[in-house]
Structure formats: structure tokens, C-alpha cells
Specification:
With 134 residues, this protein is mainly beta. The protein has no helices and 12 strands. A hairpin with a 2-residue loop joins β11 and β12. The two termini are 31 Å apart.
Length: 134
């Protein structure tokens, strides 16, 4: 139904989210944050069921109960380590998807469908790959 009066529409900046943490993981501050198939935060790793969502804002260790603790994840453009050899990302790859290798490294390919998308390649420099994870 259309409005017939003013509405107090709430706003968020969109630069942070808080997710419950997967079981039996340690999320390191500054590490590549991923969301698993159950919507829980987990460190980036080679897997097909993850989605890159940002950078961990803090260090959190969770025990065996999934969701027992939560973690803040920052959204933005972050510099990750570049993969090596034929999977290294170059300036020609800017604008393409890149893939999660671990919680600090991204690669050019899905590793024959073994890796999940980290985000879009924003830039590449001598120190690594800038990835848009917004």
C-alpha cells in the first residue's frame, strides 16, 4: 500500500555487518572474511560454498557451537596477497571476479571450480590485489 503520511525510514551506512561465526574457527583481524552456506562468518579458504564479504574487524575464536559468538565484518576495497604463477592477477584482469585461496590471498581463476568468488578486482599493484568487497 502506498504511503499516505510521512515515514521514518531507517538508514545504515552499509560499511559493516555483524554475522554469527561458524563452528571451530578463528577469524583473525584483517583477514579475508567469507560467508558460508549457512550465513555464518568463516575465514576465507579454498571451497566452493563460500562468498567473500569483507575484512574481519576483530579477532574472534569460536568453539564447537556454530553461532555462539558474532563478529564485525568491514565492507570496502581491500588489498589481498596475489596468487602465483598462472593464477597471478594482472592489470588486464581489473573488473573481473577473483577467487579466494585463503584468508589473505586471491587468485585469477576458480582453480577448476574449487574456489569461491572473493569480489571484483579493483586494482593491482606490486604489493597485491585490491578487491571490491562491498
Amino acid at each position: 500500500m502506498a504511503l499516505t503520511a510521512d515515514r521514518d525510514t531507517k538508514e545504515r551506512s552499509g560499511d559493516r555487518i555483524v554475522l554469527p561465526v561458524a563452528a571451530s574457527v578463528t577469524c583473525y583481524a584483517g583477514g579475508l572474511a567469507a560467508r558460508d552456506a549457512n550465513g555464518r562468518a568463516t575465514p576465507g579458504a579454498t571451497a566452493t560454498t563460500l562468498r567473500g564479504v569483507g575484512r574481519f574487524a576483530e579477532r574472534v575464536t569460536n568453539g564447537v557451537t556454530a553461532g555462539a559468538v558474532s563478529i564485525t565484518i568491514e565492507k570496502g576495497i581491500f588489498r589481498w596477497a596475489n596468487s602465483a604463477d598462472t593464477d597471478a592477477i594482472a592489470a588486464a584482469d581489473i573488473g573481473a571476479d577473483c577467487y579466494i585461496v585463503d584468508d589473505q590471498t586471491v587468485a585469477k581463476t576458480s582453480g577448476t571450480s574449487t574456489r569461491s568468488v572473493a569480489g571484483k578486482i579493483f586494482d593491482v599493484d606490486a604489493q597485491g590485489v585490491w578487491v571490491d568487497m562491498r
